[in-house]
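**User:** You know discrete backbone vocabularies at least as well as I do. Would you mind producing a protein record, from residues through to fold? Write it directly below this note and I will take it from there.

**Assistant:**
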Amino acid sequence: MIVFNRINILSYLGFIIAFLTSCEKSNNDDPIHEEVVTNFVELDASDFLLNISDTSVTGTFTKFSFSEEDTVNHNNWDVAFRGTTIIVNGGAKAYNDQPDRTGNAAIYIAIGSMSEINNIDTSRLLQDNSTGSAILENMMIDDLGISGEGWASYNYQTHIISPIPGRILVFRTHDDKYVKMEILYFYNSLTPEPQNGDYGGFYTFNYVLTDGATTF
């Protein structure tokens, strides 16, 4: 079941996010940034099977539209999730079980906080291709958190995947708008148990969407 809420069920996390966001706005002298609206989302992309022997993943991709602020079933999606895999609606699909690419979406990872990432470097934007997703193949990182070069890190002791602070996903949407997104959590429990099959796939993230401008 897809879960979408402006109010985070991980209540303590939502409180912290709201507090930090309000502090950022109150300390910002630029009136433009005071008008920026941050959306908070919970999304269930846990409908997948992980093959432990070769780390291959099968299952359903959950498609999300930034402008609709919700998961969608039509072709005007921007980003899709399956477990730790993230794809965009631009370029070409690598495998037949992926949704068709019908838009112009692209992605890169910026280093910094949400308040610090205020400009889009369009030269860094990459689309998916027939060999893999942009965030995986083109950026030469893994999407399981093992390398620590992507949006997440993998803990070999606990087997828990955690978003890396300061890794902001920057998107061009399927219809040429721009988004910065911060993934905050990957499970639906505060105490995940991967040893008992809790492989995550429940994204909590926030994002800011522009109307096509390359600044936030």
About this structure: DSSP finds three helices and 13 strands in the chain. The first strand starts at residue 39 and ends at 44.
